[in-house]
Specification:
Radius of gyration: 16 Å
Helix content: 55-70%
Structural class: mainly alpha
Largest sheet: none
Low-confidence stretches: none
Shape: elongated
Oligomer: single chain
Strand content: under 5%
Number of strands: 0
Distance between the termini: 36 Å
Order of helices and strands: HHHHH
């Protein structure tokens, strides 16, 4: 699905993002926000962002968004390792 957004020149000016990078940066910011709010998992948010795992982790760090990793995640990882 493709979504189109329109921004006034004033908003674009305030954002101070080059016009050619604006769609990408908005998409990354949306992914970060949805991840932070718990609406998307790390994998889905990273996928939406279009970044690599390491690039997405770096953006999380720069935006001071902690990676969500709880006991259930740890137990799932242990189970996966044991199967391997």
């Amino acid at each position: 699905m493709k979504v189109t957004l329109e921004f006034s020149e004033e908003v674009v000016s305030i954002l101070n993002i080059p016009k050619n990078r604006l769609p990408f940066e908005i998409q990354v910011q949306l992914a970060l926000d949805l991840y932070e709010k718990g609406k998307l998992s790390f994998g889905k948010a990273r996928e939406l962002s279009g970044l690599s795992v390491w690039e997405f982790m770096e953006r999380l760090r720069k935006n001071r968004i902690p990676i969500k990793y709880d006991i259930a995640d740890f137990e799932n990882d242990l189970e996966t390792i044991e199967k391997l």
